[in-house]
Amino acid sequence: MDSATLSTTRASTPPHRLELRGITKRFPGCLANDSVDLVLKPGEIHALLGENGAGKSTLVKIIYGVLHADAGTLLWQGQETMIPDPAGARRLGIGMVFQHFSLFDTLTVAENISLGLDNPGPMDALSQRIAEVSERYGLSLDPRRHVHHLSVGERQRVEIVRCLLQDPRLLIMDEPTSVLTPQEATRLFETLRVLAAEGCTILYISHKLEEIRALCDTATVLRGGRVVGSCDPRKETARSLAEMMIGTELSTPERLPHGVAGAPKLQVRHLSTTSDNPFATNLKDVSFEVRAGEILGIAGVAGNGQAELMAALSGEELLPEPAAVTIEGRPVGHLGPRERRELGLAFVPEERLGRGAVPELSLSENALLSGYAREPLVRSGLVHFGRARSYAERIIGAFNVVTHGHRAEARSLSGGNLQKFIIGREILQRPRLLVVGQPTWGVDAGAAAAIHRALIALAQDGAAVLVISQDLDELFVLSNRIAVLFHGRLSDSRPTHQTSVEEIGLLMGGLFNHPPDEDEE
Amino acid sequence: MTLLRLEPRGEASRAMVYLTPLIAVALTLVSGFLLFWAMGFDPVKALHAFFIAPVSSVRGVGELAVKATPLVLCAIGLAIGFRANVWNIGAEGQLTLGAIVGGGIALAFYGEGGWWLLPLMIVGGMVGGALWAAIPAFLRIRFNASEILTSLMLNYVAVHLLNYLMHGPYRDPEGFAFPESRLFEADAVMPLLVAGTRVHLGSLFALLAVAGGWFLMARTFIGFQIKVIGLTPTAAGYAGFNQKKIIWLTLLLSGALAGLAGLGEVAGPIGQLNPTISPGYGYTAIIVAFLGRLHPVGILLAGFLMALSFIGGEAAQIALGLPKAITGVFQGMLLFFLLATDVLIRYRLRFGAKTAPKPIAGRAAA
């Protein structure tokens, strides 16, 4: 780091690690960053806060050289710098851990790391260095293991170690805990604190406010592409941070009263799946029931069988054993989505654009997509477009969907608004049973609160609601009972008021307290 | 640095969806002009002979409708399949089978026909085309075999089957061993619609197919399912639409319409079976479907345009002594320019180097 020492000796006060002045980036039809100023000091853990679409990703991509600013200057260690590409950023000492990992499953940890380095050197020496670095920062990692054996948390450690080997002066972390259990997140924070204490600056992007309060020294809040404020998150509450992000007051949903559950609406008994896809997680002997008037939450880190459970419940994947899933006592395992909808099931998939909605079609056509089964939108084979339109308008009105009308294409809506539309479309069909995957993933705080209120109101009206989510905060707000999915197995459910985030977190890491199973492979 | 750049549009341009076919036609004309000029012909005269002279009489316009009929019938069916991501390339074979089955009925009842013969032939032609299309449908659903390959390969099988029949069972017993069938009797021929032309009942069916295709896609729930499956198969799975049913339906429908087109040719302008019943209508219909933006009304217009290229090509051969390949050259240029200009739907052309970012004062409206 010659340049760093050079500029330190020249200036009387140590320069900022990175300073952005008036960074502006425009995309067709939107101003993603509007003269953003940002100062990152050596050794600080700096949070970048903002809703989806606030411009966080764009800003970070400009710092990492993936995108180029239309205007503005970037000063690295006090010197004006052009970052042409990610390789240039790495040469300066900027490392980034992305939300989605780029690892090869069939290679070992060391091989993966060597692929990401500009001059990896011999493999033995590299393995030695990996072991040293992971030891030093408490990131236990065996360089010889193959990546497909690793848990998500371990895979993230591979990415972090890859960055650390290049001796970064600035480490950018994009939503790092979205795939971690609370315990894994705590360990990650310890690592980050050690790094910061050694003088490395950490730019931490997240929308989990409690986490930012626990970890970060400074927070810069973006809204609509502009910096709307900065603060010391330790002196704020999660609520005040959220209000800064959305710019209005936040209303929190009422919690459900406990112990009001009625007759079982959905029963799943000994559900096991076998998939041809080697990357699928097979469900193993999953049993649970959801009763009228209650919300059951299923927690778990992504990839533990959530997608398979959703498909088995929706009917997109038919089951050999019809009685494995029953709706109000009727076996439905052999029935497709259409028949299950007619029996009162509504369904909100995790993937909203491309499964829950057709991007190119208008909102009225998307209202028809699932609405045809329970609403009078189709008569003797003909689509009643007038009714589809008014159904779409009812959804838009009842759920405050911000759009320029029922003609708008689904892809023109923001994530939160589209999710409100899809949830509204399902709820207005007055289902007796609603299954929701990741209801507020990537949704801004205002829309998330509205979605939570709608789900709770639906349960209060006597429907059974099943929420499958990775967001524990959400599950603790919504659910009467929580169960955990791990490696395709489901834990027993426990009443929300009798459990804690810590306990659920341990279950998410696989520590079920009933005895381990004999048929484990 | 660059003089011409493509800049992504925020959303697809509706105007360009309709304008690009016109731009493609214009570019084809310009290229044709240059081509004729380079070949040493008077380009104005050549283009006139190609595009204007053939349609400057009632009879010429009638010929245009006769040529457009099989193109439109095939393209309507293909377009409905294309909307559902079912890529039937086998309209040529299905057309041939329609002619074989429907024409075979005419030959089987030769000399004993009645009013019922033509309706029976029409049904037979449609069933023949649909059954030929059922083969790729079955292979796709049972073995996940690409219908692009299977339907394309079946075209060659169909042509060889026709050749065999023309040299054997279907050959006119009094035809001096020429590979042609008997001329169909009056009960087995499509009635003419306009005196003084060869416009026949098949053209009416083509118009009905345009209306029916529009109704299916725009008004029915089946049409909606076709659209969703084509755009986003996972959303169709989520909604519970039966994709196998749609594959069957679209292939059988396009096969039946192609079969009707084939029957219309042998029972219409040709009046008998022979080994060259189609100059490639089934292939040209693919161009017609895309040139018409997979929309029935667009297909009707595109059908006339492609028909003009057939007729104009023939006229140019006669008037100017141009080679037969001229028709294919024009059709190819048209498809090429259409695909090339399609980029304008999602991108706009910008001249000059990349503009420097404007200083931003306050909140930008865009």
Automatic annotation (TrEMBL), chain B:
Residues spanning the membrane: 15-38, 64-82, 94-110, 116-139, 148-166, 199-217, 246-264, 325-345
CDD domains according to UniProt: TM_PBP1_transp_TpRbsC_like
Keyword Oxidoreductase: no
Short name of one Pfam family: BPD_transp_2
Main localization of the protein described in the UniProt heading: membrane
Superkingdom field: Bacteria
Keywords: Cell membrane, Membrane, Sugar transport, Transmembrane, Transmembrane helix, Transport
Entry membrane topology: Multi-pass membrane protein
Localization annotation: Cell membrane
Xref: PANTHER family: ABC TRANSPORTER, PERMEASE PROTEIN, GUANOSINE ABC TRANSPORTER PERMEASE PROTEIN NUPP
Record-given protein name: Simple sugar transport system permease protein
The organism of origin for this protein: Azospirillum rugosum
